[in-house]
Structure formats: structure tokens, C-alpha cells
UniProtKB/TrEMBL annotation:
Stored SMART domains: PHB (SM00244)
Record domain Band: where: 25-189
UniProt-listed InterPro entries: Band_7, Band_7/SPFH_dom_sf, Prohibitin
UniProt main location, coarse: membrane
The protein, known as: Prohibitin family protein
Length: 271
């Protein structure tokens, strides 16, 4: 077996070391992520230095890059809180959040990669307890859910945004009440709905009755005006006109003049 030249072995070793150094010096960051550079021979992470964006990067082999996801993320959270009257309420919510891109270095130095469990989770629980404690179970179950959701969002923002975390939204998917309280609220809501329907029927009936009264009053007024305007002379003239038209009919046979009431003619005999 032919031996390698003495100078060949150091070259091979050098190439291997070079490959290792290059492998340690290259970093590829995916889309939706950013890197925080940790300088081993320096002071760690420089909070004033901007993050490394997606793409290919060269770094010193003794340094390392800490990867952060910068896209919007969802953290589901189930909480048990107390209402204003001390009843146990369970909330099923989701928090939509992302780290502040420009402040990733500060976030890493203060909270680290586990910032969601160290900051976000305690913050939303604290905000939920504070907000829900101002409402009754009935308000939580029905009319105030959207307002409560908005209030929890604002309370959470006050806590986490100074700590370099951006809250985009908080969604309350479900509110679970004690079964007896839920049934009582549903009965009350049903009774209120039935009462509103009954009141609507009463109002509708009253409007219909009012319409009939107005129409009847209009007819009565019209008849009264007509009666006041019809004198005996006018009635006689109208009777004469009607008699003349009947006399012209081929079916009229006998006309008795002056035999009717008020001296109006009477027509006798029809085919």
C-alpha cells in the first residue's frame, strides 16, 4: 500500500478543519424567522444591534445565532376565573401575538425564548381575572362577551407591550358556567324573549285597532257631512232624474204621477 506523502496529511487535516469552520460559520434563517447573534467572546447579545433577517449569513465560528419566529403565533389558554358574585367561570381563549422584531435582542436578554410562558401567559390570566371579576355570569354568557374580550385585550397589552411583545388579538371561544347557573340564565332569557314577543303582539293589535277606529271615524264623518248636505228639495230632484231615466227604459209600462211619497212618480208594470 502506497503511503501518502508527508505533506499530504497536514493538507487533508487542514481541509477538514476548514470545512468544519465554514460549517460553523454559516447560518440560514427561514422566512418568518429572525436571528439574534450571541457573541461568545464578547458581551453576549447586543440589545442595540438589529436582528438577522431571513437568508444566508456568515458568523464567527465561536458565536451562535438564536432563532426566533417573528410571524403571528397563537397561544390557546384555558382559565378558571371568578365572576363579580364569586362564581367559578371557565374561559377558553386564544392569544394572537408576535415578538417585536426591532427589539428581539432586548426580548432575548430579558425573557429568552420562553417569553410566551414567562410573560404572556401570566399576563392574560391576570387580565382575565381582573376583567371578569367586574361582571355577572349573565353578562358573561350573553350581552357583554364582546366588551369583555376587548377589555381583556387592552389589559393584556398594558402588561406585555412594554416587554417587547406585540398582542394582535384575544379571542374568547367559549364561556363555561356552572350548570345550574346556565340553566337559570337560559330560563330567564327565554322568559324575556316570550315577554318581548307578547308585547310585540299587543302593540301590533293596538295599531290594527287604531287603524280600524280611524277608518270607522272617517266613514262616520263622511256620512254625517253627506246627510247634512241632502235637503228634501235635492232628494226630490234626484228622484225626478231617476224617474226620467226609468221612463225611457223599454221595460217601463205605467207611470203614476204624484202617487209616491213626497209627490214622486211611481212606475208600475215591468216585462
Amino acid at each position: 500500500m502506497e503511503r501518502l506523502p508527508k505533506i499530504g496529511l497536514p493538507i487533508i487535516i487542514g481541509i477538514i478543519i476548514l470545512v468544519i469552520i465554514l460549517a460553523k460559520s454559516t447560518v440560514t434563517i427561514d422566512s418568518g424567522h429572525a436571528g439574534v447573534l450571541y457573541e461568545t467572546l464578547g458581551d453576549g447579545v447586543d440589545p442595540e444591534k438589529g436582528p438577522m433577517g431571513p437568508g444566508f449569513h456568515l458568523v464567527a465560528p465561536w458565536n451562535r445565532v438564536i432563532d426566533y419566529e417573528t410571524r403571528q403565533q397563537e397561544m390557546p389558554e384555558k382559565m378558571s376565573v371568578l365572576s363579580s358574585n364569586g362564581l367559578d367561570i371557565k374561559l377558553d381563549a386564544s392569544v394572537l401575538y408576535e415578538p417585536e422584531y426591532a427589539n428581539l435582542g432586548k426580548l432575548h436578554n430579558q425573557k429568552g425564548l420562553e417569553y410566551s410562558s414567562r410573560v404572556l401567559q401570566p399576563a392574560i390570566r391576570s387580565a382575565a381575572r381582573s376583567v371578569v371579576g367586574r361582571y355577572t355570569p349573565e353578562q358573561l354568557y350573553s350581552s357583554k362577551r364582546d366588551a369583555i374580550q376587548d377589555e381583556i385585550l387592552e389589559e393584556t397589552k398594558k402588561i406585555v407591550e412594554p416587554q417587547y411583545i406585540q398582542i394582535n388579538d384575544i379571542l374568547i371561544r367559549d364561556v363555561t358556567l356552572p350548570p345550574t347557573i346556565k340553566q337559570a340564565i337560559e330560563r330567564k332569557l327565554k322568559q324575556e324573549q316570550e315577554s318581548l314577543e307578547y308585547e310585540f303582539r299587543l302593540v301590533t293589535a293596538e295599531k290594527e285597532a287604531q287603524k280600524v277606529r280611524i277608518e270607522a271615524q272617517g266613514k262616520a264623518d263622511a256620512n254625517r257631512i253627506l246627510s247634512a248636505s241632502l235637503t228634501d228639495k235635492i232628494l226630490q230632484d234626484k228622484g225626478v232624474d231617476a224617474t226620467m231615466k226609468l221612463a225611457e227604459s223599454p221595460n217601463a209600462k205605467v207611470i203614476v204621477i204624484g202617487s209616491g211619497d213626497s209627490g214622486l212618480p211611481i212606475i208600475l208594470g215591468n216585462n
